[in-house]
Write a structure and sequence with these properties.
The complex is a heterotrimer of chains A (289), B (758) and C (164). Chain A is α+β, with helices and mostly antiparallel strands. Chain A is built from 12 helices and 14 strands. Chain A has 2 domains: 153 residues, 2-Layer Sandwich (Uridine Diphospho-n-acetylenolpyruvylglucosamine Reductase, domain 3), CATH 3.30.465.10; 109 residues, Enolase-like, domain 1 (2-Layer Sandwich), CATH 3.30.390.50. With 164 residues, chain C is of the alpha+beta class. A 5-stranded mixed sheet of chain C has the order 2-1-5-3-4, with helices on one face. Classes of the chains: A alpha+beta (289), B alpha+beta (758), C alpha+beta (164). Chains in contact: A-B, A-C, B-C.
Chain lengths: 289, 758, 164
């Protein structure tokens, strides 16, 4: 029988020490909604489980004076839903996070876990990419920041260095006329893994889109920032031609697979459809209509 | 007919006897008990779809500390293949012994090859990994078209078809008239081929059992199943322990839908318990349930229907190929026997073919085979109606089976309620309502379909005892999967004329109640109501005799009414009524305890018919179909407890919507199930469904004391066709394969656009 | 492998138990704590039969380590009734035939209670999406959704009456 230890450190330094010391056998426990499933199925057999939820910074949700947000990596979907301000400023990011699993899963699952699980289909990731989130990671060699889209390295893999822990997400302050949205396609109405997921964040001034970012999930080994889609929208009035150009950029960015959740053709087509729908929702929110 | 009229309890929505335990978490399901000294069993399963087992070495596992017993096929009684069938109900023990533990060959990924009992689940799992199995991997096939190819790898060499070893294990036909002649008379003939994927019953409770074997061989089985007597008999036959030594106790069952009508774990756990001398608990994981317990068949059906211009069907031909999985026995009887039965067709040939392939052995699933057949037949019915420019319900009415119609599978119908279901559907608020329009980018459609299930009688036992304080305990022998205890309590309260709350209904174990056949085939309330009624009538006779004795008058001069004995008339004498309570108190002095049991092989189960109306809304950009309104009409005979009759209808419809839209077994290139869990085996969740309206048509069964007909199976039968026809109505595209999942609908829409452009 | 000693509160009662580091909360409830009302249907958070609340937050107990309960307050189906007095949801489920086999019922009730605690007036759509994580294979959900909505209405009326 392999020995397993459970640790629930009170401080980040303690957590990093324990995590780094245990090497590749260690796993971080945030909400556990992926980790416990992987442990039960035998895919993952951790030697040390480091529960980070007793560390205040890991579950904190803070709004800065400038309107930016810092979200602890282990803040649960339900805690973010209940936050009086977060969903007003970042409705799309909240949608992405709140689509991770059931209400039960929401009670535990966190955007940090969703990102670090490394699934190309994680619902919060495209929304975070669209939002331009920056993550803070900390390891034995101190803190550093990465763009959220630079975290995933492939299915189940990230670009964090050995011993590094994801600490928080920073969402920038945004000019007025900004909002975001996230949509995914699933066969049922709930409880499925995204076949395609799209986050769109944009700013509209006098009817013209002045900034736009598009995150695309479940169509490639990692969630993607589709810069060409954002560019296609910027400068337009989100007219049909601009939307079609952005949709085409999304379709072009797809490098999907055929699997039990969808076909290549279906995923590519859906990426375009969802780009248009998600953009429409984000625009409606941004313009307050 | 002894139909109870002016009912006080029959037809009431009483609170189910087992309800309180279930809303408070007290109810004990299969995995909820423990025994002193209990250890845990785990199964080692084949990773291969098809492999000869050259040898199994369990020595390393046996040496692992904590391991108490290891079992292989050597420990399970063999029923040799060449010695002929040994049937238990519809199951051949030659297949059952090989299904619970592979003998010479492993026939599907997940097939048990050995089992271990150890002091913890973790040690048992670890020990399984130490068992060395030497496999000779063989070619395999899963899909019907692969399995029936001339060069397909054959699962069972002894099985011959047209003189050669084959995976076709059997054929069945129902015939009436001459189809060649019949089709000659037709003005419209439509022939189509359909496929369906394997789908699982999807009960939420995994298979589980806890078994102890004492040194003298006395065995106690605690498990959930659709028949404790089936568990006892199969375990006895597969372990050699006589039935008299096996007490099979029925735990509360967390869903079955046919899937718990055979054993998987019990014989294995019994042998582990016997060898270890310790009680053994086994609980399947969800993955084991999905890989190794029976989904229903995948299928390929071809249906041809011919009709005259006036709408009269003159001939029909159905050919239904069904996957049996690893061993013969797919439900071709349901597919070939039920699908055309709603209609009076003079010339009919309905054929079923049973095809073995390297997937888990098929298990019964709600009206086994009938929904597969009905999907094909009802879709073609819809197409013929359209070709004739007839309303699909009028087309069905024109050809409806009725009293005196001879069904191809044998019976000439007595008074049946099929026509009533079609008329009720036609007159329903749903059918009258306009479809309405959905949001931009959506299209709506409406479909209808009918369905039939045989229903069943068979063996049942009941005991009705009056307690010393004048209340009632009813014991029956059928696990309650849909509220049968509530129905029985209603009937018993009605007959005895007492408050429902004074009747306690329990399910006896195999050593305390007489033999009772499976809970299946929609037979339980039909059959158990018969034996309970006769038992109660015997009790009432005793009560009248006791009162007569006390009053010193003739028993014939005593009547039983409102829970008390009364003189039949003032002429019989002037006596204050004697209540059940009073008679119970006087029982010791007046002849002893009061109670009666009846055991019968019941007959007279009439078939059940249903007609459904379904509305769908389709997101045409993404190909997502949602059911937005649904009405299920069914001839239920007599709704003893309307709440649980509606529950059967609603539950069956929900399963059918899942089967129609998203549920399917997906196999990977290695022949393994790629979606063995609730995440990717997509059963409907709450937000997927609308309310499901029920119209209960009551055409009482004349051969039953309360008019009962089985209701559980019929509601699944029409659903896939109703959904498919609704999608056709919305899009003008007919789907000949299930599930009608978004990528499939989307691809068909794109193909249509492309075709239009060309 | 040393077991972990956990002190927690379950259904208002202080509780202690020993668990392995990789035991789930569901393992602890059904094992050493003997609270078998929470059911194991999938062990992957897809069926909701093991639903409990932790500090009033709805979770799947199969997706939480037993060791994590230290210092928290848990509520399970065994704590939903107030002694002999059923919770209105329990009563309504019985009256409306909102259960058949009963294996999902514990989780359905705990999830429904969690919904009504935060939203006393849910729409049908809100009930359906809230309960999407609780699979039921018997009922088609119809009677469950109705029972939750009717309970909510009666509880609102009860509060109104109490206020008058």
């Amino acid at each position: 029988m392999a020995d397993i230890r459970y640790l629930a450190p009170q401080s980040l330094d303690e957590a990093i020490g324990a995590f780094a010391a245990a090497g590749s056998a260690a796993r971080i426990l945030a909400g556990g909604t992926d980790l416990l499933v992987q442990m039960r199925s035998g895919v993952v057999k951790p030697g040390v489980i480091v529960d980070i939820k007793k560390i205040a910074e890991m579950t904190a949700i803070k709004e800065g004076a400038d309107g930016s947000f810092v979200i602890g990596a282990a803040a649960s979907g339900m805690a973010l839903y209940e936050h009086p301000r977060f969903g007003k400023v970042w409705p799309g990011v909240l949608e992405g996070i709140n689509l991770i699993g059931s209400k039960q899963v929401q009670g535990r699952a966190s955007p940090g876990g969703n990102l670090m699980n490394g699934s190309p289909a994680g619902d919060s990731v495209p929304a975070m990419i669209a939002a331009g989130a920056i993550v803070t990671v900390q390891g034995p060699n101190g803190r550093r920041e990465l763009k959220v889209e630079d975290v995933p390295a492939g299915p189940g893999r990230t670009n964090l260095k050995p011993g590094e822990i994801l600490v928080s997400f920073k969402l920038p302050s945004r000019p007025s006329g900004s909002s975001d949205a996230y949509l995914r396609m699933i066969p049922r109405t709930e409880m499925d893994i995204a076949v395609v997921g799209i986050g769109v964040s944009l700013t509209i001034k006098d009817g013209v889109c002045t900034a736009a970012r598009v995150g695309l999930g479940a169509v490639a080994p990692t969630a993607l920032l589709v810069e060409a889609a954002g560019k296609a929208l910027v400068g337009s009035k989100l007219d049909d031609a601009a939307l079609e150009k952005a949709a085409e950029a999304c379709r072009a960015a797809c490098r999907p697979i055929d699997d039990k959740r969808g076909t290549i053709a279906y995923r590519i087509k859906t990426a375009g459809v969802l780009l248009k729908r998600t953009t429409a929702i984000a625009a409606k929110r941004a313009t307050g209509k | 007919m002894n139909l109870v009229t002016n009912n006080k309890w029959i037809g009431q929505r009483t609170i189910r006897p087992d309800g309180m335990d279930k809303v408070t978490g007290r109810a004990q399901f299969a995995a909820d008990t423990t025994m002193p000294g209990m250890i845990w069993g785990k199964v080692l399963r084949s990773p291969h779809p098809h492999a000869r087992i050259r040898s199994i070495d369990t020595s390393k596992a046996e040496k692992l500390p904590g391991v108490k017993a290891v079992v292989t096929s050597k420990d399970i009684v063999d029923f040799p293949i060449d010695k002929g069938a040994v049937m238990l109900g519809i199951q051949d023990m030659r297949w059952m012994c090989r299904n619970v533990m592979a003998r010479d060959k492993a026939l599907f990924p997940g097939h048990p090859v050995a089992a271990v009992a150890a002091t913890t689940e973790a040690i048992a799992a670890e020990a399984c990994k130490l068992i060395e199995v030497d496999y000779e991997v063989l070619p395999w096939s899963i899909e019907i078209e692969d399995a029936i190819k001339p060069d397909a790898s054959v699962l069972h060499e002894f099985n011959k078809w047209e003189g050669k070893p084959s995976n076709i294990a059997g054929r069945l036909e129902h015939k009436k008239g001459d189809i060649a002649e019949g089709f000659k008379q037709a003005d419209v003939v439509i022939e189509r081929t359909f496929t369906t994927r394997p789908v699982h019953q999807g009960y939420i409770e995994p298979h589980a059992c806890l078994i102890s074997v004492a040194p003298d061989g006395k065995t106690t089985i605690w498990s959930s199943s659709q028949g404790q007597f089936m568990v006892r008999a199969m375990t006895s036959m597969l372990t050699g322990i006589p039935q008299s030594d096996i007490r099979a106790i029925p735990a509360e069952i967390g869903g079955g839908f046919g899937g718990k009508t055979i054993v998987y774990l019990e014989p294995v756990a019994t042998m582990l318990a016997k060898k270890s001398g310790r009680p053994v608990k086994m609980v399947m994981t969800r993955e084991e349930v999905m890989r190794a317990t029976g989904p229903t068949s995948g299928s390929r059906s071809t249906v041809k229907i011919g009709a005259k211009k006036d709408g009269t069907i003159v001939a029909a031909h159905g050919t239904f190929y069904l996957q049996a999985g690893a061993f013969p026995g797919s439900p071709i009887r349901g597919a070939a026997g039920c699908s055309f039965t709603p209609y009076d067709i003079p010339n009919l040939l309905s054929e079923g073919f049973d095809v073995c392939s390297n997937r888990s052995k098929v298990a019964a699933y709600r009206a086994p085979g009938a929904p597969i057949g009905a999907y094909a037949v009802e879709c073609v019915m819809d197409e013929v109606a359209e070709a004739l420019k007839m309303d699909p319900l009028d087309f069905r009415l024109k050809n409806a089976a009725k009293e005196g119609t001879k069904a191809a599978h044998g019976p000439t119908f007595p008074r049946i309620g099929y026509i009533e279901t079609v008329e009720a559907a036609k007159n329903s608020p749903h059918y009258a309502a306009p479809l309405g329009k959905g949001p931009a980018g959506t299209l709506r459609g409406r479909g209808v379909a009918s369905g039939f299930w045989f229903n069943a009688g068979g063996e049942s036992s009941a005991q009705v005892n009056i307690t010393e304080d004048g209340n009632v305990v009813v014991t029956t022998g059928h696990p309650d999967i849909g509220g049968s205890r509530a129905g029985i309590a209603n009937i018993c309260a009605e007959l005895l004329g007492i408050d429902y709350k004074r009747v306690s209904v329990i399910i006896g174990d195999t050593q305390t109640i007489g033999f009772s056949n499976l809970t299946g085939g929609s037979r339980v309330l039909f059959a158990s109501a018969m034996v309970v009624t006769q038992s109660a009538e015997k009790v009432i006779q005793t009560l009248r005799e006791r009162a007569a004795k006390i009053w010193n008058i003739d028993p014939e001069a005593v009547k039983w009414d409102q829970g008390a004995a009364h003189p039949v008339s003032p002429n019989a004498g002037q006596f204050e009524p004697l209540t059940l309570k009073e008679l119970a108190e006087k029982a010791p002095a007046m002849g002893g305890p009061i109670g009666a049991g009846v055991q019968l092989n019941t007959a007279g189960a009439d078939g059940g018919f249903g007609t459904h109306v379904c509305d769908v809304e389709i997101d045409t950009d993404l190909g997502i179909a949602r059911v937005i309104r649904y009405t299920a009409v069914q001839d239920v005979g007599r709704a003893i407890h309307p709440g649980y009759v509606e529950g059967q209808l609603q539950g069956g419809v929900a399963q059918g919507i899942g089967w129609a839209l998203n549920e399917e077994y997906i196999y990977n290139k290695d022949g393994k199930v790629d979606n063995p869990g609730f995440l990717d085996y997509r059963m409907p969740v709450c937000s997927d469904l609308p309310m499901i309206d029920c119209i209960m048509v009551e055409v009482p069964n004349p051969k039953h004391p309360q008019g009962v007909k089985g209701v559980g199976e019929v509601p699944l039968v029409p659903v896939m066709a109703a959904v498919a026809s609704a999608i056709y109505n919305a899009l003008g595209i007919r789907f000949y394969s299930l599930p009608m999942s978004p990528p499939k609908i989307s691809a068909a829409l794109d193909a249509n656009v492309k075709q239009a452009a060309e | 492998m040393a077991k972990i000693h956990v002190t927690t509160t379950i259904n208002g009662e202080p509780m202690e138990y020993l668990c392995e580091p990789n035991d789930t909360m569901l393992d602890a409830l059904r094992g050493p704590l003997g609270l078998t009302g929470s059911k194991e249907g999938c062990s992957s958070g897809d069926c909701g039969a093991c639903s409990i609340t932790v500090d009033d937050r709805l979770v799947c107990s199969c997706l939480m380590l037993a060791a994590e309960a230290e210092g928290h307050e848990l509520r399970t189906i065994e704590g939903l009734a107030d002694g002999e007095k059923l919770h209105p949801l329990q009563q309504k489920f019985l009256e409306q035939a909102a259960l058949q086999c009963g294996i999902c019922t514990s989780g359905m009730l705990i999830a429904s209670d969690a919904l009504l605690r935060r939203n006393p007036n849910p729409s049908e759509e809100e009930v359906r999406f809230w309960l999407a994580g609780n699979l039921c294979r018997c009922t088609g959900y119809d009677k469950i959704v109705r029972a939750v909505m009717e309970t909510a209405a009666e509880m609102r009326d009860g509060i109104k009456e109490a206020a008058q």
